[in-house]
Amino acid sequence: MANEEDDPIIQEIDVFLARSLLEKLYLFQYPIRPASMTYDDVTHLSAKIKPKQQKVELEMAIDTLNPNYCRSKGEQIALNVDGTCTDETSTYSSKLMDKQTFCSSQAASNVSRYAAAVYKKGELHLTPLHGILQLRPSFTYLDKADAKHREREAANEGGDSSQDEAEDDVKQITVRFSRPETEQARQRRVQSYEFLQKRQAEEHWVHLHYYGLKDSRSEHERQYLFSQGHGLAENTELIKSPSEYLMMLMPPSVEEENDKPMAPSNVLSMAQLRTLPLADQIKILMKNVKVMPFANLLGLLGSGADATAVLRCVQQVALLVQGNWVVKSDVLYPKDTSSPHSGVPAEVLCRGRDFVMWKFTQDRWVVRKEVAAVTKLCPEDVKDFLEHMSVARINKGWEFMLPYDEDFVKKHPDIVQRQQMLWMGIQAKLEKVYNLLKEHLTPKKQEAQSAHPLLVSGEQRVNMAKAKVKQNYGQLEKELQKQKAEMKAHDTSARTDVPSIRIKEEPVSVEEPMDTSAHEGLNNGLVNGLHPAQGSMDPVNGHLPGGCIDRVAQELKAFVSSTFKKQFVLTLSELKRLFNLHLASLPPGHTLFSGISDKMLQDMVLDTGCKQILVPFPPQTAASPDELKVYALWEAGDTYDQHRQVLLEIFSKNYRVRRNVIQNQLSQECGEDLNKQEVDRVLKVSFCSLW
């Protein structure tokens, strides 16, 4: 007891359980690299996996330019393996051992006790591991060298015994018939080592694509290591109420469970529902109702439900659409299921339903033919998606079934903002999967909508506008009086020190904030339920305070500098995408949420030592204007600065250049005779984000 009192608790850390990479996260244990064999950090030649066996095979390039590398031994190994001739089947096409293969073995059979942890800003995020694999060097190339040696010896022996080949060899053939296999013999054969090896060899390899540590895709996937409820409160998977803990410690007896009347498997009474944990209650309700306002959800859960806990749980199983909660697609279509109409797997159904939900975040109306044309799904599946969340209107299309919940949006702006970030990530995935055009991204304005209001009447709109103007006028008046008092006190103190200072007033240019959502909002000026004026920082008379501008500039400069140090060349479109991911990782109320325009972002890029590369793209290109603007860090302070500057000069004259031209230009400008592998390394290091 005395020792426990002398050892007090110094700090308490909140623990979150991240489930985004559940059953997908593996831990690779690499061997210690010897000094004579240094691997290139940016070059993984190939990777493949057998998912059922959890077997991985990696092929990594060896840095042959390292002073510890023995070139003579590398050439001898390549000669022993491939011989003197080189063709497509050769293991080492460069006549040098320039790569090494690693094979995996399971380090532990039971990995349920292990998890990957990420510590950030006083929070510990845990993701369960699906497997732990130890990578060890594979020496199959030695077997190939032995086979080559045996073939050469057989060829030499065959030349000496040419006279024996002239004689006709007559051999006796014995024919045997196998007996019928008994059940015991079959079981022994199935459990034999040869049979298991054959089964493992029959499984096909799945080829993978490797992304480096500094690649933008790796940074995007790394965000999944953080819990979705990050920054709000504790994860519901790690906390239990006292009654839930008591239920886990003392479960009800079997006799009490048998006394309960039997009900159909698809029917659950409200009394039975409220005996379940809160997260399960919300999941069952959302799965059955599919679309529900937050107020109705609280009413169904009972008066004792905590609104904060309900908000935390509902975000795990639903998404916000027009201020209402719509159940997630993966809840309705679990993994390894398929469509009852067409047999399409659950992953395809989830993408199609997410597209329908995303369309309703843009507009109140969706056309069924447009959804079918984009998703390529059968009409029955598309009809099911629409019936989950909308109502058919004759000659108009499908209208979202619930009115816009403005009360929830006003009360919970932080939740709305976080949901907007999630929808931006879903939109980016849908654009890649379906190759969406601008006509799909821009909401259509229908004449019927403009002529007949959908939600409220004209008189109600006028009254709401008047009330809002009065409210805003009162707030602005208070802010103005407060600002005048502060300026008056400041002027009084400043007159005693500097009486003759004249301040020149310059006109302030009004910049439009950067469109971080890549699309317009609803017809009434809402972006997924978020008013543009409802930001984390309220401007005074349309302009931010001076101290706030300095903080925003410092934060923006830090982001731009760190981004270009990782990826030296970026288009404006890619930079804005990375900025949106950065915003999604920030807590609510951060200074960067005050609004960053395209001009501010581009000016900050130029101020941090970057240059705009005027690449002469062809006039008929289908790229967007943001994709045509290319910025590069001119001096990074590494060994590739000169090579990178030569490459940027080359691409400023032509947007498409052959590799041999680049190799010759680099050799002339840098005074080095670079081979093909060295040119590839320079290109990959310099343009890793565009590779």
From TrEMBL:
Residues 146-155 have a biased composition (Basic and acidic residues). The keyword Isomerase does not apply. Residues 146-169 are annotated as: Disordered. GO terms for cellular component: RNA polymerase III complex. GO terms for biological process: tRNA transcription by RNA polymerase III. Residues 444-689 form the DNA-directed RNA polymerase III subunit RPC5 C-terminal domain. It comes from the Eukaryota. Keywords: Coiled coil. Residues 466-493 form a coiled coil. This is RPC5 polymerase.
